[in-house]
Design a protein that fits this description.
single chain; 297 residues; alpha/beta; Spore Coat Polysaccharide Biosynthesis Protein SpsA, Chain A; nine-stranded mixed sheet; 47% helix; globular; Glyco_trans_2-like
């Protein structure tokens, strides 16, 4: 089947050096059928437009938001800027390996236009070296074990995601018509991508995966999820999400997934892991929030 051009729409707000690495990794693709749009979310310290123009690459275009839109609204603008059937929204600090585009195009063709696809992901640190922080070791334990390309769906897939979100949002290539149907919820920030996946999968969507490592995700201690984890606030959002998911899954008859959402095991363990840090900082409010997340339903 004719998969068509892959749209890569990259919101920019961050380190210029890492952003340049990200763009250059797109240029290094072994499949040339891609289009890159850099969406500047009004980063105040550097204007990337001149550097991008200097690349003299007609497949790259530059857009600037009229104001700082933040994460979810910038993601929605990425959807609006898409021109082709499939779209990836990478971080401006991540890196594509040379076979990313060819790998996702092969998945799309093999499984007849699944709703979203992802290759295997390698984690790197701030310096670009391979890294295995605890969160990613846990993801590796709970994600499906693959030796070949596969497409997953339904109760079985959602059960694994409710145990812990092992997918890597920046590495996912989405079908654009599906994104335009469901969009990104402004109700969530930390679990926004998991909420989107749940909407798609409850609607009968399929997630195609490849064991080929084709993307490098940069793990920062200063990411939004890491910042709020320390004071417990992220877990309020997570608890609300899992409670709503449990009800939706039970109503659908997906009993295993509903039980996994009720247990929210990795979310509880993550909160428990944060308790010693909160105690060391004397943050009694954070300790209360964390323990409440661990022990309440």
């Amino acid at each position: 089947m004719n998969v068509g051009t892959i749209d890569i729409i990259m919101p920019f707000y961050g380190d210029p050096a890492q952003f340049k690495e990200a763009v250059l990794s797109v240029l290094a693709q072994d499949d040339a059928d891609w289009r890159l749009v850099v969406l500047d979310d009004c980063y105040p310290h550097w204007d990337p437009s001149s550097w991008l123009e200097g690349l003299q690459e007609p497949r790259i275009t530059y857009e600037r938001n009229p104001e700082n839109l933040g994460v979810s609204r910038s993601f929605d603008r990425c959807i609006d800027l898409a021109r082709n059937a499939y779209l990836v929204i990478p971080g401006c600090d991540d890196r594509f390996l040379p076979d990313y585009v060819s790998t996702v195009r092969a998945l799309i063709a093999r499984f007849d236009r699944p709703e979203y696809v992802q290759p295997r992901v390698e984690v790197i640190d701030d310096d670009g070296a391979r890294a295995t922080p605890l969160v990613d070791r846990v993801k590796a334990l709970i994600q499906p074990r693959l030796t070949h390309d596969a497409v997953l769906s339904g109760d079985a897939l959602v059960t694994t995601l409710m145990r812990g979100n092992w997918a890597y949002f920046p590495a996912i290539c989405w079908r654009v018509d599906v994104l335009r149907t469901f969009r990104f919820s402004d109700e969530y920030e930390i679990v926004m991508d998991l909420a989107l996946q749940l909407d798609i999968l409850l609607d009968g969507g399929r997630f195609a995966l490849s064991p080929t490592t084709a993307f490098q995700y940069r793990r920062h201690a200063a990411s939004a999820s890491s910042y709020t984890a320390s004071d417990g606030t992220r877990f309020i959002e997570e608890r609300d999400f899992y409670r709503a998911a449990r009800s939706r899954l039970r109503a659908r008859g997906w009993r295993k997934a509903s039980r996994a959402a009720a247990a929210r095991i990795t979310s509880r363990l993550n909160a428990l892991y944060q308790v010693p840090s909160a105690l060391l900082h004397g943050d009694r409010a954070a300790v209360w929030l964390l323990l409440r997340h661990v022990f309440t339903r």
